[in-house]
Amino acid sequence: MKQVSRLIFVFFLIGYGVSGLSEAPSEAARIEKISPFFTPKPGGFASLDPAEIRDQEKRRPAEDLKGYIKVNPPKGSCFYIQRAYDLPDEKICKSSVLSFKVGDIDPSGRIVWRLSTSGSDQGIALRWLTPYRIAQVIPYSKNEKEPRQHRIIKTCELKSEIPGIQEKQRRLHIELFGGEEWVLNFPEKDSLVSQPPPVPNLHIMKPGRRIDGTGGPKGLTKNTGFDEDDDDAWVIPSRDTYIMSASNFITSDSGPPGNINKCRYQLKNAPEDPESGWIECHHTDRYQIVYTHIPCAKEILQKKP
């Protein structure tokens, strides 16, 4: 009887594309068939618990705020879920509610878990979208060798109507968990960075350095003398990228403009986050470097002139 039950279980998993066998369906097909066992479904939106957001100031750092995903494995089977790369797999054999933290969200605003059904199963990646984004910053108080800090975007919206100003503004307002606010004042007309030569029959973007300064030959610099057209000094590559003064990046506690440099930006097609824009500013009045995706940038593109 146990052998028959085992065979039924194996055939059930094959039917749902999670057996890990060599002839298993594609990952996309497996995700589609496994999705009904999750609420919300992979590919959908996952949000933080509203109670966590209300009590955030009193209870814990923003990185520890939680949201929840319900997992309900098929009867008689178990899922092995890894919620973060530094955590072990969890064996889930009955209906359970698992949490995720804001600190688990990647720069593209996604929660990514790994699911497998056995030790021989290589597993599949399950992803959920969120309305949040993780900005990476290096304050002036940090030296070049210290790691970047995170700022978590809570809301992002277009504010084109400013009291006392008649003309339309290309202004985005970003609220962070913790109370800090940013304003991005985009120019009336976008100006391209000096563009690299076209590549015949091929679209290649040269990768710049990473935000922590380790990905390219130049790393971070505290002066403003580097070449604004040099991709080695930037995370965002020059192709199809616009540039503006870093004085257009304003924080809620900004002081007088000082050692201001430039911002590179695109209003769409952020890496793995095509509906969002992305921006990188060097030497604002508060930060050496700011890098973030901008989930509401598309509102500028949709705004009628």
Layout of secondary structure:
Blueprint lengths: L1 H14 L11 H8 L3 E2 L10 H5 L1 H4 L6 E6 L7 E4 L7 E3 L3 E6 L8 E7 L7 E6 L3 E7 L9 E10 L12 E6 L4 E5 L56 E4 L3 E3 L10 E5 L10 E6 L4 E8 L3 H5 L3
Antiparallel strand pairs: 1-2, 2-5, 3-4, 3-6, 6-7, 8-9, 8-16, 9-10, 10-11, 11-13, 12-14, 14-15, 15-16
**Average pLDDT reading:** 78
Number of self-contained structural domains: 2
Termini separation? 72 Å
Q: What is the molecular shape? A: globular
- Strand arrangement, largest sheet? 12-14-15-16-8-9-10-11-13
Topology, number of strands: 16
Number of helices: 5
Q: Outline the biggest β-sheet.
A: 9 strands, antiparallel
* Category from helices, strands and their pairing: alpha+beta
**Which segments are poorly predicted (pLDDT under 50) over 5 or more consecutive residues?**
1-24, 203-226
Describe the structure.
The chain has 305 residues and is α+β, with helices and mostly antiparallel strands. It folds into 2 domains: 23-129, Immunoglobulin-like (Sandwich); 133-302, no CATH class. It is built from 5 helices and 16 strands. The longest helix has 14 residues, at 2-15. Residues 1-24 and 203-226 have low confidence and may be disordered.
Summarize this structure as a short list of keywords or feature phrases:
disordered N terminus, Immunoglobulin-like, alpha+beta, 305 residues, nine-stranded antiparallel β-sheet, 5 helices, four-stranded antiparallel β-sheet, 2 domains
